[in-house]
Amino acid sequence: MTGSTALLALLAGLIGLALGSFANVLIHRVPSGASIVSPPSACPACGARIRARHNVPVVGWLVLRGRCADCGEPISPRYPIIEGLVGVLFAGIVAVGGLTVGTALALGLAYFGVVLSAIDLETRRLPNPLTGAFAIYVGAVILVGAAATGDWGAALRALIGAAVLGLLYFLAFFLYPKGMGFGDVKLAPTLGALLAWFGWDVLAVGGFAAFVWGAAFGIVSMIASRRSHGVTIPFGPWMFAGAVTGLVVGGAVASWYLGLVGLDIA
Fold first, then answer.
1. Which terminus of the chain has a lower count of CB atoms within 10 Å, N or C?
2. CB atoms within 10 A of CB 208
3. pLDDT of 204 above 90
4. pLDDT tens-place string over residues 76-86
């Protein structure tokens, strides 16, 4: 890694920490329909406002030793975990990808993936304002990227990918509505566009991997609960896990599979 790349990664990590702090606000307030700009952050136990020096991502929680400065009530470790996770993801993505359209898409996937997965795990919901914001972000990045690079073929591929994955999830919901929430259906086109922008192999592996991850977690949940029926799982996190799988190993897995069935076109 060159010095300039390391500096960019460090800057991205710091931005990620700050955005991670805002991610906690989104996770806490959006599901209940509360404003994300007011009132200022406060202790849920005593109502005391969080001091500016205690709002520094990760550091503030460590300084307070995980407790409110006014009433001493515990502060969930979720806050520094989310902040640190977003910071690390941002730094790693920029370190690997540099400053490209693909990097911008991967950063959006990481950020909205963390926020929406946390909400879905807690509430079994994928709020429309956040899935909508994610769709707008991905669409804007793809359009601006295509205009800047002239790669309208990738933009068209993304549009087709959105339609394909969106239709797949709609059919799954229509055929078995108990197995999937409509929030998953609304999230699917955005992930389809993002994955297809990188390539058909990434879309195929990423889309399929979501169901593999979801099935694996469902089996583990049934074993842990000792129940074979009535176990429900949030599927949003596994959609994002599948998308990440597609981005990281999609090309390799697709090449392996094509070679396995005798269609190796390398």
1. C
2. 15
3. yes
4. 999 999 999 99
Rounded Cα distance, 193 and 156, in Å: 9
Question: How many H helices and E strands in the chain?
Answer: 9, 0
Query: Whole-angstrom Cα distance, residue 128 to residue 135?
Result: 10
Contact 126, 184 (CB under 8 A): yes
Q: How far is CA 134 from CA 115, 178, 233, in A?
A: 11, 25, 22
Q: Give me the helices (H) in 30-127, please.
A: 59-63, 78-97, 101-123
CA distance 128 to 138: 15
What is the spatial distance between Cα 69 and Cα 48, in angstroms, rounded to a whole number? Answer: 9
Question: Residue 45, Cβ neighbours under 10 Å: how many?
Answer: 13
Query: In this structure, what token pair is assigned to residue 192?
Result: 């389809």
Residue 74 has phi, psi (to 5 degrees) of: -65, 145
Summarised one tens digit per residue, pLDDT across range 223-232 is 887 776 766 7
CB half-sphere exposure, 79, CA atoms < 13 A: 23
What's the distance, CA 239 to chain centroid?
A: 9
Residue length of the chain: 266
Question: What is the DSSP annotation of 74-86?
Answer: BPPTHHHHHHHHH
| Whole-number Å distance between alpha carbons of 198 and 71 | 50
Q: Is the peptide bond before 31 cis (omega within 30 degrees of 0)?
A: no
Structure tokens at 9: 């990664």
Q: Which two tokens stand for residue 146?
A: 């295509």
Rounded Cα gap, residues 121 and 2, in angstroms: 38
